[in-house]
Every structure is written in structure tokens, then in C-alpha cells.
Amino acid sequence: MIITPTIISLREGIEAALIIAIMLSYLRKSNQTDLRKYVISGTIAAIIASLGVATVVGLLWGIFEGPLLTVFEGTVVLIAAILLTTMIVWMWNAGAQVTQEIEESMERSVVQQSGIGLALLSFSLVVREGIELSLFSMALVIQEGIQSYIGIALGLSLAVILGIGIYKGSLRISIGALFKWTSIFLILFAAGMVAYGIHELQEAGLLLIGPIEVWNINPPLLPDGSYPLLHDKGAIGGLAKALLGYNGNPSALEVVAYFAYLVLAFTYLWVKQKG
What we know:
The chain has 275 residues and is mainly alpha-helical. 77% of the residues lie in helices and 0% in strands.
């Protein structure tokens, strides 16, 4: 399944591309294009640092075996779910003011005539997105397999194209609407990540709270040994698992955590929307 990796990497990529586009646009409007090299240098450094984090996490994944590997996978997925939640909350609250906040930070650096300040600013803003995407990518590969990289590459490619269009002024999209609609999908996906992370830790003998299986609605295997469509490893069930965290035979703790996350997340966004 590449739908989920594509959406998540597109969302993360757009955030990073938007940051860079805002910074370069500010320098263009203020006739200070000679400072663009500092923004670009900071961005390149952030990409390298993010790839370093991804490499370290990948190496650790290759080192662990047995129960330790299961604990590592569950922990990575839960950390990714937490980061995904903070990203959703931050963009929901600050999305409309992102441009203003970045331009104000740039103005302080420019007033101080600090090219290094611009480089550090672009580095700090972009590296956060890069590290988040590194952990999300690992979590997606753990959950959905190596084909997730196809969706990640596709999402990032689309983000680059959109970022260039935004900077050139040839593309007008409602960033606020984009982030809000994708936030709804990401909340559903994050709930599934929480449940999956708990499942992995329970597989390793941790968090054994309540019944390990509250129901099993997975249909039996077909005579040829393949999975039926509605099995959580089948075509339809697998899609629901990738997008919504569906599990045909969850534990009690998984069910409670899944629905508790959804209730808390959507209640928070509803309150913020009303406020």
C-alpha cells in the first residue's frame, strides 16, 4: 500500500517546501537575493542531518533480533505517532501564522546582517520536518513493508513540484485547507499507529493488560492459502489497515487506545475550531 506513505510524505514535504519558499520569497521581496545561499546551505545541511538520523535508525533496526526487535519496532511506531500528533496540533494552531512567524525570524537575522543566522534558521525549521519524516518512514516500513518507500518517494516528488510552484507564484493553493483536511486523515492513521505500537510491545510480552484478543473477525484462509478480501491481510482489509489501523483480532488495550486517541484528538480539534 503506497497511499498512506504518499500522503504523509507529501504533507511533511509540503511543510518543508513551504518553509523554504517563504524564506526565499521574503529575500526576493526585500531585494536581498544575495542571502539565498545561506538559506539553501542550511536546507542542505538539514537534509544531510535527516538522512543521518534515518541511517542510524535503520542500522539499529538491523542490529536487534527477536523480542528486542519487536520492542524496538513498537517503540519507533509509538514515537512516530507522538511526533505525528504534535505536527497535527502545531499546524492546526499555527498554520495561518506560519508565514508571518518565519518572516519575523528572518527579519531579525537580516537586521543583524547575519547570514549564519539565516542558515541556522532554515536548518532548524527544515531538520525538524526531516527527522519526523525519517521516523515516519521507518514506522511505515515496519507496518507496511518495503513498498512504503515508493509512496514516500512519490509524496516527496509531489511536494517539491508544489513547493516550486508556490515559490514561482504559478500555483495558488489554500495551505490552511490542505493541512486541515490532511490532519483528519493523519489522526485516523496516528490512532492506528498507536494500536500497532501497542500490539508490537504485547508481542514482546509487555503491556499485557486485559484480554489479548477481544474478537477475531478475520475470515479463514481460502482453499489456495490466500487471504480473503476482508482479512486484515487481504486486499480490502489490508487497505483499511493501512489507512485506518484496522485489525481483525485486536487486544483490549489496542481497542481502548485506538478509540481513546480518536476521541481526544477530534475533541481537541473541535474545541480549537469553535474557539
